[in-house]
Write a structure and sequence with these properties.
alpha+beta, Alpha-Beta Plaits, 4 helices, 5 strands, NIPSNAP, NipSnap_domain, Dimeric_a/b-barrel, NIPS1 protein
Length: 139
């Protein structure tokens, strides 16, 4: 019932909508329920056509730099809808821990190399900070 009320309220605020069918990268952890409180960062990368395999190969090596604090929630790529779109979902206690975790990755030997090889593959990128609803298994 609460969800139905939320949907009704949301529809009054919704200006547009688009759908994608996503697949998860095989090298990334499968999303699991989390205890909170957490905030989530959804990073979206629109890649140059023809670069998905190169992106995936680089991230298969790079994900190890971002596993220490269990912040990696999921990595997905578009299969239907706008193509060559990648989404990375990260969990953090708060914005301060996000900053600390991201800075720590830069201090690890090899992270800069991953960024060096993947940045030229990107057309656009976006970051959104999200707070989970009470009904979400990702708290």
């Amino acid at each position: 019932q609460e969800y139905l009320e939320f949907r009704k309220e949301r529809s009054r605020m919704l200006l547009s909508r688009r759908n994608q069918l996503l697949l998860e990268f095989s090298f990334w952890n499968e999303p699991q329920p989390r205890q909170g409180p957490n905030i989530y960062e959804l990073r979206t990368y629109k890649l140059k056509p023809g670069t998905m395999q190169e992106w995936g190969n680089n991230w298969a090596r790079a994900i190890k730099y971002r596993q220490e604090n269990q912040e990696a929630v999921g990595g997905f790529f578009s299969q239907i809808g706008e193509l060559y779109v990648v989404h990375h979902l990260w969990a953090y206690r708060d914005l301060q821990s996000r900053e600390e975790t991201r800075n720590a990755a830069w201090r690890k030997r090899g992270w800069d190399e991953n960024v060096y090889y993947t940045v030229p593959l990107i057309r656009t990128m976006e970051s959104r900070i999200m707070i989970p609803l009470k009904i979400s298994p990702l708290q």
